[in-house]
Specification:
single chain, 339 residues, alpha/beta, eleven-stranded mixed β-sheet, five-stranded parallel β-sheet, 11 helices, globular, binds threonylcarbamoyladenylate, binds magnesium ion, nucleotidyltransferase, cytoplasm, tRNA processing
């Protein structure tokens, strides 16, 4: 079922929200928009319902899910006692694109946490997600609503392409805002550790709690990531992506060289760089890093097999939201080159 909430009157959307909540409460999977990406939801307290998420996505069983709740009171119901800095983070960044890894109190089904003693919880900041979670009044487990390994969905059409026929419904709330997943922060130790960079930046977090660490696995591929999901192939476009650190001129020389070998080249770059490049297909991602983040997944899905042979994407500075953009690009890339 596809409920379009973007272009409809209030009574109809109210009915759609209630139908979706009923399906979730009855153990079905429903996709819904959040401010980051679309999520595929199921009742987090129902093991069979949660199993439906893993099945629909083809997700590895050892990769735990995020429990979504409407507010702080509901978050507290899923975890052991909060330390003061966690309260400060919750007050500063929720609702919003920040996911807290905390000691679980066992309320959610075992397969939500993939057997870990911790649980990831988030309070999304999107009117549809908020309304849905309020209507259900249960925690909703929700990974990104894509087939495992593909870029996360930022419009309902991406969910439809990936999961049509495998899930009970999609609430279409139009394009998501942030466009990249939430920041996952481990709050089980004295100093918080970022396991996945995302919508809330390290700089923003440090303003509230002082020192914040990065999981060493984010910088070094040899380290074992603390977030199970970070070890898998991710965000893969249909054609190989080369992430290239270099000037526009250097990138142009590379394009020319590859075209001489007969390859058709797709380009992902900032508006500024895109303006000066010549290639077979060019997608300008945006002027600012926030725009680039918002447009990245849609762009990765645009390049189709048979139309271009490789995608060359320029590397961006790893600061602010650029940290999350580069984290996703490195995972999407088959090679990372420095000119
Ligand atoms: O923005 C988002 O976070 C989106 C929207 C739908 O809310 N959701 C999302 O979920 O990105 P997913 O499943 O694609 O990513 C969840 C990440 C994975 O890397 C997973 O391994 C990690 O969170 N995670 C979940 N529970 C964890 C835990 N207990 N300890 C460490 N990492 C955990
Ligand atoms: Mg995902």
């Amino acid at each position: 079922k596809h409920w379009n909430l973007t272009n409809t009157d209030k009574t109809y959307s109210k009915q759609a929200m209630q139908e979706a909540a009923e399906l979730l409460k009855n153990g079905y999977t429903v996709a819904f928009p959040t401010e980051t990406v679309y999520g595929l939801g199921a009742d987090a307290t129902n093991e069979a319902a949660v199993a439906g998420i893993f099945q629909a996505k083809g997700r590895p069983q050892d990769n735990p899910l995020i429990a979504h709740v409407a507010n702080k009171q509901q978050l507290i119901q899923l975890v052991m006692e909060l330390s003061p800095y966690v309260e400060n983070l919750i007050d500063a960044f929720t609702p919003g694109p920040l996911t807290f890894v905390l000691p679980s109190n066992g309320t959610c089904a075992r397969n939500v946490t993939a057997g870990l003693s911790t649980i990831a919880v988030r309070i999304p900041d999107h009117p549809v997600a908020q309304q849905l979670l309020t209507n259900c009044a249960i925690p909703i487990a929700a990974p990104s609503a894509n087939i495992s390994g593909k870029p996360s969905p930022t419009v309902a059409g991406h969910v439809w392409n990936d999961l049509n026929g495998r899930i009970a419904g999609i609430l279409d709330g139009g394009p998501t805002g942030v466009g990249l997943e939430s920041t996952v922060i481990d709050c089980t130790q004295e100093i918080p550790v970022i396991l996945r960079p995302g919508g809330v930046t390290k700089e923003q977090l440090e303003e509230v709690v002082g020192t914040v660490m990065m999981d060493p696995a984010l910088a070094d591929q040899k380290e074992q990531p603390k977030s199970p999901g970070m070890k898998y192939t991710h965000y893969s476009p249909e054609v190989p992506l080369w992430l290239v650190d270099g000037s526009a001129q250097g990138i142009q020389e590379m394009i020319n060289q590859e075209q001489k070998r007969g390859l058709r080249i797709g380009i992902l770059a900032s508006v500024k760089t895109a303006r000066v490049l010549k290639a077979d297909e060019i997608i300008p991602l945006g002027e600012t890093m926030r725009e680039i983040a918002a447009n990245l997944y849609e762009a990765l899905r645009t390049f189709k097999q048979g139309e271009v042979d490789i995608i060359i994407c320029e590397a961006f500075p790893e600061e602010g939201i650029g940290q999350a953009v580069m984290n996703r690009l490195k995972k999407a890339a088959s090679t990372h080159l420095t000119l």
